[in-house]
Amino acid sequence: MGLLDKLKNKLGSTPAAITAIPGRLYAPLAGTLVPIEEIPDEVISQGILGQGCGIQPDNGKVVSPVDGVVSGIAQTLHAVGVTTAEGAELLIHVGVDTVEMNGEGFEVAVKAGQHVVCGQLLLTFDLATIEQAGHPTVTTFVVTNADEFAEVTVTTGLHVNAGQEIGSFCK
Fold it and tell me: pLDDT, tens digit, for every residue of 45-67?
């Protein structure tokens, strides 16, 4: 078994190359999509950070949900922002209150300002470390500037693979 096969076994399969369609949103990780209202964080669940959904993760691998530019990485490595050419500002925030972990169990694979393509690895995290720290692992995926778009839609209630289309946004 080669190194790539070992990595795939550890982190789950790598999504095939994804041809991202502008205005479409793709799952940043494999798992079950949950309504934003069910995320156990008052600010997020009320939509204050933006419109989107939660994802109860199957593994600790986060990929870019769009083609874009990494607009920010939390100092504690638990969250990353990506901005699309159309101006949608996306936030992927792993777990709830994971800022308290100070980066323990997280590893970032990109840098702020870096161009990324849909399906490209952004960060990895250890589910067990988050659970042992007493934090929910549900990951927030929102369009933080949703008010600048006529419509933002995200499907919930499905189990998805990383890179699977789950929603859209339009001006």
Answer: 999 999 999 999 999 999 999 99
The active-site residue, picked from 78, 93, 115, 159, is 93
- Taking Cα atoms as reference points, which of 167, 77, 88, 86 lies closest to residue 122? 77
E-strand stretches of 27-103? 31-35, 51-57, 61-63, 68-73, 79-83, 89-93
Query: Both tokens of residue 100?
Result: 């308290």
Longest dimension (CA), the chain: 49
- pLDDT, tens digit, for every residue of 80-92? 999 999 999 999 9
**Is 93 annotated in the active site?**
yes
Quickly tell me which residue has 């709830």 as its tokens.
Answer: 96
Burial class (CB in 10 A: 0-12, 13-18, 19+), 14: middle
Q: What CA–CA distance (Å, rounded) separates 92 from 65?
A: 9
